[in-house]
Specification:
Helices cover about 40% and strands about 20% of the residues. It is an alpha+beta fold. It folds into two domains: about 5-60; about 65-350, Aminopeptidase (3-Layer(aba) Sandwich). The longest helix is centred in the first third of the chain and has 29 residues, at about 35-60.
């Protein structure tokens, strides 16, 4: 039979309950105080902001950085250099090796695609130019070579070569690799491409029929990279101008991609996946800040509206294809060289007007 608590125990229980009741009453009275409720509400509302700030910091930390001294563009605008690298460093499995080759097969990294985007101050339409990867230029260390090969010595060598050989100074640099590009296209569900012609590239195993098609990342990459594109009727095939055609195809794909990029808090999965892949896919100059990255994204989204300037070149096919500038090159480069450019072409005669 249980004994009843003695007086001292009973009194301690009563005192303890009384203290708890007092603390509860104090907490309740504080909660009823409007200022306290405002504090709690603000703390609750701040949680998403704090989380977004942490997530933004993580994303920024995923962006590759490289030390590059920008040559600087003429006054009145900003020039962005976009490079598509052909590095195979990402290849680690047989499937990717079959598609792209390995870093043993193709060592190093070349500038497979070189795009210049000039954005005028004040928000005018940007200007787009594709620089042929086989264009002969004067490299500071290697002498005369194809411009794509200058990237073997790193981004700084390419920036310096554009400045010294073509008189083109740039303010910001961005490089994107094969796999990163393909992943971004897949993240938006592929892109739509309309062709009036039957197109093929036997070397890249690319075949596109007339009509509108949905291209995945791998196919879009081959479409841009093709250097042996032909059109025909299935029997007779006509080769395209490789360099001019590649620039136009790059513009088409970038424009179609930009049109499908929709970052929305309502699509958490799609938005987060696209941002996650985008930040790991690109490498920019060390000094680029958040505003520079934002302005770059705006420039890319407006590529579809940008007038494209063709750099006139004479392409020479053969075991080692190359291209050289022809008459009109100086005038074509004027939107990027302008007046007051910090760059001076080392070979003025190579820029005929």
């Amino acid at each position: 039979m249980k004994s009843r608590p003695d007086g001292s125990l009973r009194s301690r229980i009563v005192v303890d309950w009384g203290q708890r009741r007092e603390r509860f009453d104090d907490a309740y009275s504080r909660w009823r105080d409007p200022s306290w409720r405002v504090v709690v509400l603000l703390a609750f509302l701040a949680l998403p902001i704090v989380f977004a700030g942490i997530y933004a910091g993580v994303l920024l930390g995923r962006i590759g950085r490289v030390d590059v001294t920008m040559s600087g563009s003429p006054y009145g605008g900003t020039t962005y250099l976009l490079v598509g690298s052909d590095s195979r460093a990402f290849v680690h499995d047989k499937t990717a090796a079959k598609t792209y080759g390995t870093s043993i097969d193709v060592p190093g990294a070349r500038a497979d695609l070189i795009l210049l985007i000039r954005v005028p101050d004040g928000g005018g339409k940007p200007t787009l130019m594709s620089v042929p990867r086989d264009l002969l230029v004067l490299d500071r260390d290697r002498g005369l070579l194809r411009i794509a090969l200058s990237y073997l010595d790193g981004p700084q060598a390419l920036v310096d070569t554009l400045c010294a050989s073509l008189g083109v100074g740039v303010d910001h640099f961005t490089v994107l690799g094969f796999q990163g590009f393909a992943d971004l296209i897949d993240d938006v569900g592929g892109i739509s491409l309309t062709s009036d012609l039957l197109l093929r590239d036997l070397r890249l195993r690319l075949l596109i029929y007339p009509g509108t098609h949905q291209l995945d990342g791998g196919t879009a990459l081959r479409y841009i990279r093709s250097r042996h594109m032909e059109d025909g009727n299935g029997t007779t095939w006509v080769p395209h101008d490789a360099e001019d055609d590649r620039g136009a195809r790059a513009r088409t794909v970038l424009s179609a991609f930009a049109a499908k990029v929709h970052l929305s808090p309502l699509d958490v999965d799609g938005t987060s996946r696209l941002l996650w892949d985008a930040t790991s896919a690109v490498t920019v100059e060390q000094s680029a800040d958040v505003f520079d990255l934002w302005n770059l994204s705006k420039a890319v989204r407006r590529v579809g509206d940008a007038p494209e300037v063709q750099l006139p070149v004479d392409a020479h096919d053969g075991p080692i294809p190359y291209a050289d500038l022809r008459a009109g090159a100086g005038d074509a480069l004027r939107p990027f060289t302008g007046n007051g450019s910090r760059c001076r072409a080392a070979l003025p005669a190579a820029l005929p007007t």
